[in-house]
User: What shape does this take?
Amino acid sequence: MSEGTNAVLAVNGCAQKRLRPFRPAAPIDRCAAAWTDVTGNPAPITTRTTLMNSSFDLNSQRIVAREVTDDERMQMLPRHFGRDMLTVEYAIFAFMRKLSTRYTGGYWTYFELSNGGFYMAPQSDSRFPVNLESNGFEGEMSADAAGITACLFALSHLSFQIPRECIANHFHHLRDFALDHSEASAILAAID
Assistant: This one.
């Protein structure tokens, strides 16, 4: 068959047009082109020292949560999340509704962490049943642990949608605090 003919080939009993020879597509950018001399991802790689990837004396580095007073409350979300404060707050409420059917809204207590982090938790003495279809977790948590879990879910989710490093940093600060929480095993199993 000649190159210019529109020949039909029989493959497994089906007639198909002969395909043209493969030519590489024009690259969208130099990073996407496999035939360039640029290798790897040109984006800068930043690393963080966290409790998960470092070793040091945990007693001298204990992260402490401080309950925010009513006088400071209005400045907390803007201080930590700036223009994204309402998005973050709404995402935390939404994830709490997904985590527990017992949660029906209410007043939340704000906490600042000594490592620069922040979290909020429903003000409640009752425990919340938490069921996650996504990873099979089923358990019960205090309001504080459920709030931390909802915040971790929200911050993780938003870190992929909001192109600001402060969201990811707050996730890491809170996760580091959660590692030493009295309900750390339940929190970490829930976010796994």
